[in-house]
Amino acid sequence: MLLIIAALQKEAAPLISRFRLKKDMRIFEFPVYLGQDAVLVVSGVGKLRAAIAATFLLSGNYCPANEALLCNIGFCGSTSDKYPPGTLCAAHKITDADTKRDYYPDYPISVDMGIPTSALLCSPQIIRSVTDPLLRPFPDAELIDMESSGIMEAGGRFLQTHQILLLKIVSDVLAGTHPDMLNPKLLDEYIHSGVLLAEPILRKANENIRNSPGIIDDKDLREWIDAVSARLHLTVQMEHRLYHAARKTLLSGIRPEAILSSFPDTRPAGKQERTAALEQLILSLGAK
Question: Model-level pTM?
Fold first, then answer.
């Protein structure tokens, strides 16, 4: 079932229409809209409100945890002309600007959705320029919002990472349009066209989750990664690469444990051998 969070009523309106949702008049904590295969909450702006809304949805007995797909659809800013206003993107990495913590929803790396994927920075405030000092520690963040890390933090308490999908619609490019000068009519066009493009993605994702064989046991995978890391003396960054390669293999329907366990029990003599061994292992997992 789709559990959808939208920060603003403007963002929620086309979703309510496309999924034929009706307002639940029994609930007063948030505006909540119900349908046959979707529930939507209008959370309000900011990661705290988004986290509360996600917790509300995930503890509300709307569906079993293994059948839930937690989604966020809403506006974001872009630091790059690569994503002009109106572009629909999926976030494959979310960074919290306050805590510096990174989150990695797996769904965008396991399925080709036909839209670009990008790193997303969750900011505690509106960013008005690419020269804003808050952006300096995050050079890879091409998209910026204010809710995503709250959704990832709360969602991670209930769900596996392949059950979270964040779709963002670019409202402005910081190097060009000033956020205060956004045209309401243009925003309406962006959100309606973005939701039109997002709807089949969400329906397919919902179907994939519903038909998935079950929850992926991340603990077992971590144990295998730790064993290989100890053998190869991997750095933290190398472990991170290996983990996400193994997750991608797992999400494609192949169990990576056999590949990891059959890897030669040899210890690299130096940095070059270690790097070569890691690349060979990632190649054997079928991940780029």
Answer: 0.75
